[in-house]
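A.,

Following up on our hallway conversation. Structure tokens first:
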């Protein structure tokens, strides 16, 4: 995609970001020393999340949701310069529902739980269908890495309204 001045202006308005590096070319070049208007860091994140969301599974009663993301900007992205937003699944992992997995995630062992707490864990186990890890990155028009990150998704079964 190629970010336009209009996109940067609209994102500035949407996010209440009035920094001149996103809409004033003269300021950006003369005061900040950049060659053109800068793409917002959070806009890069929004675009990565949009591309990732478009790749997530929706099969029957199982939907995949973004659970967490971490990212870092390595180089600036500029207006009117094409960028490539990339996502790649690392390696699918199956959901684990053993006692050891629950303890590893900060849960107490079954011996330490009340009956009600154990029922809540069982419900969670039925809903969770798996987790995936993704690599995310944005390249500029020369193919240089400008933003990199990782995301974790979770697959969950949706509950039917009839039962």
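Then the amino acids I'd put at each of the 163 positions:
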């Amino acid at each position: 995609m190629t970010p336009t001045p209009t996109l940067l202006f609209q994102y500035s308005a949407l996010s209440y970001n009035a920094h001149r590096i996103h809409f004033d070319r003269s300021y950006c070049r003369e005061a900040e020393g950049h060659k053109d208007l800068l793409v917002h860091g959070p806009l890069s994140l929004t675009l990565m999340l949009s591309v990732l969301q478009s790749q997530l599974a929706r099969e029957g009663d199982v939907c995949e949701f973004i659970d967490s993301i971490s990212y870092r900007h390595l180089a600036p992205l500029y207006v009117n310069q094409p960028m490539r937003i990339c996502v790649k699944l690392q390696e699918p992992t199956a959901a684990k529902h053993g006692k050891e997995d629950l303890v590893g995630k900060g849960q107490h062992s079954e011996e330490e739980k009340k009956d009600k707490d154990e029922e809540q864990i069982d419900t969670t186990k039925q809903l969770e269908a798996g987790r995936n890890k993704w690599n995310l990155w944005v390249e500029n028009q020369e193919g240089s890495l400008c933003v990199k990150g990782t995301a974790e998704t979770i697959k969950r079964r949706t509950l039917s309204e009839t039962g």
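The radius of gyration is 21 Å. Curious whether your intuition agrees with the design.

B.
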